[in-house]
Structure formats: structure tokens, C-alpha cells
Amino acid sequence: MTSDTKPASKNETATAHKSMFDAVLARLDVAAKLLGLSEDIAEILRHPQKEVKVSLPIVMDNGKIQVFEGYRTVHSTAIGPSKGGIRYAMDVNDDEVRALSAWMTFKCAIAALPYGGAKGGIKCDPRKMSVGELERLTKAYTTALVDIFGVNKDIPAPDMGTGKREMAWLLTTYSNIVGEHTPGVVTGKPITLGGSRGREAATGRGVMIATLEAMKKTGMDRKTATAAVQGFGNVGSHAVRLLHSKGIKILAISDHTAAFWNEKGIDVLAATKYAESNKGVLKGFTGGTEISNDQLITSKVDVLVPAAIQDVITEANAPRIQAKIIVEGANGPTSAEADKILNEKGILVVPDVLANGGGVTVSYLEWVQNKSGLYWSEEEVNTRADQSMGTAFESVWYNAQQYKTSMRIGSYITALKKLEKAIKYKGVY
Ligand code: NAD
Question: Do the Cβ atoms of 255 and 312 come closer than 8 Å?
Fold first, then answer.
């Protein structure tokens, strides 16, 4: 962190909370206080607009019925229709979806997109389910939520455990029910069904842009810089590839099966090819020494990119973190307690609501293409998305400086300013 952007002082740092949504609120409160946000507006944003929980009975391949829990939370439509991914994971629950939906509200506002925020999920382990079971589950979820979703109402997208395949199932189910092909109801679709070029790599690309911007601010030379990236899924694998393409040496990579370290630099192409041939996982990769995920987080690198799951940077490992810049590819990788420690250590944290906004930005561009029926080249998409990320980074940096706070609180302030205006213009009755 440069002297321009000071670490947050004690009273500017949110306190620890067990609930993920409480942690969001704690940070919102800190930003609201610094900004002088009206208590009425803060109160509105403390409450998600709509929360739905559905039970999804599915015939499993063994002929037995299993009932899954599905969720969708619309946090805010103050700025526009709600936007947010769908997550398939065993730890999905109402609190997590609520927190992720609020982050989407802030993320879209920071990226200056005409969207509110939402999130959804199904409590399931997609790795243990067959393709047929996942298809039936996705179609049941879409059917249950067909009144929530809509091109100008609520637009889902992929998140952890889902991708273009699930988005295609969602699109076809929704279109069949409403009786017309409706590509704009979901983003992150296959290109042949109206998906956007550049969407698949978009979140990782945004992480790369955010990293380069943070390096510029801290005077770090990317040609000599090193990085460790946790997670080798959609966000992590593209972040690794794109950071490497900018000359940054990737010393460590990992997924849920293994983590690897190579002092000379991981052969990124070899790792990608290996994972592709190994059911998408890194276990057994021979291009580095096997380390633990905790060793990756605390490894001696310039840039750390957590791009897997939440709560991986905690008060237990934050004091040992050696990176100078942390770019949050994942949502919620840093606990509130860890935030405080990182601030005190002077580590520049580019927060999730800014750093992983590249995905929703290209989702927006996909939606615009679906609405207009005019489709752009990958270059056009990337140029627009890169510009948008750069602008979002600058506005968060500006607010962090202006309010003498961290980039995390600066990002909330950036969002709150826009949300306050939108809510006031519209009026509350
Ligand atoms: P993904 O399912 O494609 O990949 C997740 C990766 O994390 C996999 O490599 C998995 O092995 C790894 N992982 C899981 N548990 C782990 C553990 N305990 N330790 C180390 N690695 C572990 O998911 P994704 O889409 O890449 O999402 C990753 C994160 O980025 C999530 O927090 C998600 O909310 C966030 N995100 C995703 C997008 C997007 O466009 N996909 C956009 C914004 C934010």
C-alpha cells in the first residue's frame, strides 16, 4: 500500500462476525459512517428485497428420490434488474446466499452497471452427481424460480460449481415455460446459444487488470513480480494464464485436491493441459513440489490471488502472509479479523467486489448483445471490459484516498454513493 492510501484505523475496521451476511453489514456500517450515509438508506440496504427457498425433489440415477434445497435472494433492484450467479456447493445456505447477493449489489454499482444484486445456489455436491442428475436438478431449480427470473427482472449467471452447461439448461427450461427463446434471461451461456465471446475468461481477466492496476499504484514491476493463485477453476485458471501472459512469474497454484510450488515458475500451459486430462484437477501434477493450501497463502510472493472459496485468509494465517498485494478473485476470501491484520501490515487488498467484477461486466455485455441481437468480437468485448475495470479501480482508489481508508471500505463507499442517489431519485413510499 502506498502512503496515499492509508490502512484503515481500528474504528474503520469491521469487527468479526460468524454470519457471512453480518460481516457484510459490519463493513457496510463502517463505510456508511465514514461517508455520512443517511440511516434510512443504510437501513434499506441492510435488508434483502426478496428471499426464496425451494425444495427440489429429483429422481437420482439409482431410482430413489432425493430432495435438494435451492435458494435465490434478490438483495436490491435500486439501480436495475438484479444480477447474480448460481452456486452448487455443499455449504450453500440462506446466510451465504444473502451475503453474496449484497456483494453483487455493491459489485454492480462499483462497475457502473445498470443492475442490482442477487445470488442463488443449491446445496449439493456437483462432483458426486452424474450429468443427468445435474441436468434434472438445474431444470427443477429453474422451474421453481421461473417467476423470479426474467430478462428485465433477475438474471442469473455461473458461479462456483456451475458453468455454461448449467446456464444452457436454465435457458432452455425458462424459454420452454415462457414460450419464447429468451437468451437474455441468463448470462455465461455457450456462445452458440447467445453467450458472449470473452465471458468464460472474463473474471480471471478482470483479476489480471486489477493486479496490474494495483502494481502500478505500488510501483511494482510486473516483469520481476511473482504470484501465487489459489483455485484452478473458472476464475483461478484464467487468472493464472493471463497473469503469466503479462510476464508475472507464477510460483504457486492449487485447487481442492493439491497445491504446488515451483521456485523457477510453474509451467502454466503444462498445468492447464494436465488438469484438462485429469478431470479438471491438479492432483498428481509433477511440475512443482507439493505444498499445503495454507503454505500457498503464506508463501513468499509479491501477489496473492485467492480465487477459490471464502474465508481462506483468517486471523490464523494473516500474520504470516508475505505478499504485498492481495487480489481477491473469490468472493469473501478474507475474514473481517484478517482484514484488520492485513491493514496493519500495510498489505494492499484489492477487494472482491472490485477485483472479480470482470465476470459480471462481461455478463452485462452479453445481456446487451442479447437485447440488441448484435454480437461483438472477443477483442471488442475485452476492450470494453478492460476499460470498465480500469475505471472501477480508479473510482475505488479515489474514494479510499478521499476517505483515508482501505480499498475494501473505499469500494463500499463507491457503491453506497450510487445506491443512495438511485434510491433517493426513485423515492420510497
Ligand atoms: P469453480 O468451481 O470453477 O472453481 C473453484 C476452484 O476452487 C476449483 O479449482 C476448486 O478445486 C478450488 N477449490 C475448492 N475448494 C478449495 C479449497 N478448499 N482449497 C483450494 N482450492 C479449492 O469456481 P469459480 O467460478 O472459479 O469461482 C471461484 C470463486 O470466484 C468463488 O468465490 C466465486 O464466487 C468467485 N467468482 C466467480 C465468478 C465467475 O465468473 N465464475 C465471478 C465472480 C466471483
Answer: no
Task: List, chain by chain if needed, residues with CB within 6 Å of any ligand 1 atom.
Answer: 158-161, 203, 230-236, 254-256, 293, 307-309, 329-331, 356, 359
Distance from the alpha carbon of residue 17 to the mean position of ligand 1, in angstroms: 23
Element (H, E) at 260: strand 259-261
Rounded to an integer, the average pLDDT of 32-60 is: 98
Domain end marker among 334, 355, 376? 355
**Structural domains in the chain (count):** 2
For cell 478431470, what's the residue? Answer: 279
DSSP 223: T
Burial of 425 (C-beta count, 10 Å sphere; 0-12/13-18/19+): exposed
Average pLDDT over residues 41-65: 98
Distance 272 CA to ligand 1 centre (A): 16
**Is there a single domain that holds both residue 174 and residue 246?**
no
3-state secondary structure of 46: coil
Place of cell 432452455: 172
Residue 135 in grid coordinates: 441436468
At 18, the pLDDT band (50, 70, 90 cuts) reads confident
Q: Can you tell me the distance from the alpha carbon of 170 to that of 163, in angstroms, rounded to the nearest whole number?
A: 11
CA 195 to chain centre: 19
Residues 80 and 27 placed together within one structural domain of the fold: yes
Of 151, 182, 213, at which residue does a domain stop? 182
DSSP 122-186: EES-GGGS-HHHHHHHHHHHHHHTTTT-BTTTEEEEE-TT--HHHHHHHHHHHHHHHTS--GGG-
Q: In the structure grid, which three cell numbers stand for residue 254, read together?
A: 492449487
Compute the distance between CA of residue 393 and CA of residue 215 in angstroms, rounded to an integer: 12
Q: Which domain holds residue 289?
A: 202-355
Question: How far is residue 210's CA from residue 212's CA, in Å, rounded to a whole number?
Answer: 6
Helix axes 131-144, 164-178, angle to 10 degrees: 40
> At 14, which helix (H) or strand (E)?
none
Give residue 17's pLDDT.
Answer: 55
- How far apart CA 45 and CA 189 sit, in angstroms, is 30
Residue 311 to residues 116, 121, 246, 314: CA-CA distances in angstroms?
A: 25, 18, 28, 6
For residue 393, count other CB atoms closer than 10 A to its CB: 25
Whole-number Å distance, alpha carbon 239 to ligand 1 midpoint, is 12
